[in-house]
Design brief:
This protein has about 150 residues and is mainly α. Helix content is about 75%, strand content about 0%. Helix 2 runs antiparallel to helix 3, helix 3 runs antiparallel to helix 4 and helix 3 runs parallel beside helix 5.
Length: about 150
C-alpha cells in the first residue's frame, strides 16, 4: 500500500495548485502547461521509485543506471516545473529560478558528504541532463506562451 500513497496525492496537489493560481489570478496557459509537466514528471518519478526500481533490483537487470537515477532525473523536472508554476512570471527572468533549482539540487548531492553515503556522480549527471532538458522545454513554452521580457 505504501507504493500507492504518492499517487493519491497527485489530484490533491493539482487541486491545491489550481486553487492557488485561480485565487491569485495567475492561471495562464503557461502555468497550466508547466503544472501538467510537473505532475506528469512526479507520476513518472513515483512509478519509477515504487515499481520500476524494485523490479530492476530484484531481477538484477542492467539498465544503464536508469533505476538508480530516476529520482534525480524526473525529480529535477518535477521541482523545476512545480516551482515555475507557483513562482514563475512567464518571462525570461524565470531562468534564474531554473538555474537556482539545478544548482540547489547539485548542492544537495554534496550534502551527502556529511552523512554515511558518498556523492552519487550518476545522480548529479542526471540532475544536470534533466535540468537542461527542462530548460529547453521551458524555453519552447516561453517562446509560445510567455511575455518575452
Amino acid at each position: 500500500m505504501d507504493n500507492y500513497i504518492p499517487f493519491f496525492l497527485i489530484p490533491f496537489v493539482c487541486w491545491g495548485v489550481l486553487y492557488y493560481l485561480k485565487k491569485n489570478n495567475k492561471l495562464t496557459s503557461l502555468n497550466g502547461r508547466t503544472l501538467i509537466i510537473a505532475l506528469a514528471a512526479f507520476a513518472i518519478t513515483e512509478l519509477g521509485r515504487s515499481f520500476y526500481r524494485p523490479y530492476i533490483y530484484q531481477h538484477k537487470i542492467e539498465d544503464c543506471f536508469i533505476a538508480d537515477t530516476i529520482g534525480n532525473s524526473f525529480g529535477t523536472v518535477t521541482a523545476i516545473f512545480m516551482i515555475l508554476t507557483l513562482s514563475g512570471k512567464g518571462t525570461n527572468k524565470d531562468w534564474h529560478i531554473v538555474f537556482i533549482i539545478i544548482a540547489g539540487l547539485i548542492a544537495y548531492e554534496f550534502l551527502n558528504l556529511t552523512g554515511k553515503t558518498s556523492i552519487d556522480v550518476n545522480d548529479m549527471i542526471a540532475t544536470v541532463i534533466f535540468g537542461m532538458i527542462s530548460a529547453l522545454i521551458y524555453f519552447v513554452l516561453l517562446r509560445k506562451y510567455g511575455e518575452k521580457s
